[in-house]
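Treating backbone geometry as a discrete language has practical consequences that deserve illustration. Part of our work consisted of pairing the sequence of a single chain with a tokenised description of its backbone. We regard such an encoding as a compact summary of how the chain folds. The amino acid sequence and the backbone structure tokens for this protein are reproduced below.
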Amino acid sequence: MIKCPSIPINGHFTKISWLILNKYFLRQKIFPPILPTKPKPEADRYAPIRTLNTPITMQLIDYSHSFFSVVPPFLALALAVITRRVLLSLGIGILVGVAFLVGGNPVDGLTHLKDMVVGLAWSDGDWSLGKPKILVFLILLGIFTSLLTYSGSNQAFADWAKRHIKNRRGAKMLTACLVFVTFIDDYFHSLAVGAIARPVTDKFKVSRTKLAYILDSTAAPMCVLMPVSSWGASIIATLAGLLVTYKITEYTPMGTFVAMSLMNYYALFALIMVFVVAWFSFDIGSMARFEQAALNEAHDETAVSDGSWGRVYALIIPVLALIASTVSAMIYTGAQASETFSILGAFENTDVNTSLVFGGTCGVLAVVLCTLGTIKTADYPKAVWQGAKSMFGAIAILILAWLISTVVGEMHTGDYLSTLVAGNIHPGFLPVILFLLASVMAFATGTSWGTFGIMLPIAAAMAVKVDPSLIIPCMSAVMAGAVCGDHCSPISDTTILSSTGARCNHIDHVTSQLPYALTVAAAAASGYLALGLTKSALLGFGTTGIVLAVLIFLLKDKKLANA
């Protein structure tokens, strides 16, 4: 038996708890029916496992046929739902998983946890800088956004737009189309576009709730589809680890991300729904009431400034510089890794992380050059610090997501779950089940990123074991469900920032957006059912579109006369 450590604080309770955990749970004496009926020989039971993030080979317990393999990830899921504290929940899931893997030995547990953390930047005796580069890009993106805010460029663009938009439809379409410029980050999009579009939509009596809906439904859906974004970068990094963990060589991280984006039916059709609503004034539920009230009650319009503070070009040039430099770097690094040059081949073999760091650096430099004279010298350090600090939460979630992904792989959670699914659930139902599960989790926790971190490794492991051809559909379903639940959740940061950017009542935004989100979710669920049963992405896309069109026809309300 493992010797219990001496802990001075609440020592007796801790010692008793440790003995119970070690003797009964970890030594498998309380629940024998749920464990393998024929235990493996001792030599096979403690098989050496070496993973992407584990620099040192260590004897880890094999849980591939044990109920305990699902405890860490689902404990993290349950705690996230109950506490709504994603960082704490992921951290506990990681610690419990490590304790199981090392048989409850605290010294081995700390050593293995240290190896996992070090493995984020050091692997196989050499530096592995892919993940640190992602963190650098997130910090650069935060600085980029903060400098644009300090420069007043957002308000300058809003003043320009107010002089060129002619009607309500134009105001709504402008707001929706701005996502093609600000898709680099959902926070940036919700706050920047809100500041840009709000004076314009107020002028043409578009309700603040309609503005919040457009902001929210173009933020996460576009960011999750684009590789040149904070979302895309982190997802690609997660995918790279999953592909290595499960020895999948036929896909590259970038190629996998592109394929998943094409199957992300919720995100794609949420964007389509936004443009339908903006063009046709398709108002359902409480949105119709808010729109009618906006027509009858004018907001106080913001006076057009003299342009002495911000400049329009100080917004446009840096954003274009960020996008162009990142894409150029992706093509260049991909071409260097390809035997023959082609655009598709370049993107499939590109070094995404290096490209993002290069693009983020160019974007920040462009902001600095364009804002000389509009930002006080003393304000630059404040802007840089505020921007970097704004990304600390996302960075923490991402690091813990990487670690729990390693734990899930080492405990063979997917192997165990796949045996249950194989006997009780048709593999074709996996995508729609994962879509619904991810939606519920994201709704309860209010975070897409936490859902990605917990659900993507499980989805990948289950698909690889049950039917490898379903790995991309299953992970796409998780991505779509995470965005869907995030949209519906009143505690989602993106939802809160969208109502903040639109300056509308938060609950009004949640209740008015919910009918649109659920309508698209129902259509997407039908698409994932078709995708899983037929393995045809095109048929799944078509099914989603047809079901959405039918639902819109059934739910259509009286259109506003002044659209």
Remarks:
- The radius of gyration is 25 Å.
- Residues 506-534 form the longest helix (29 residues).
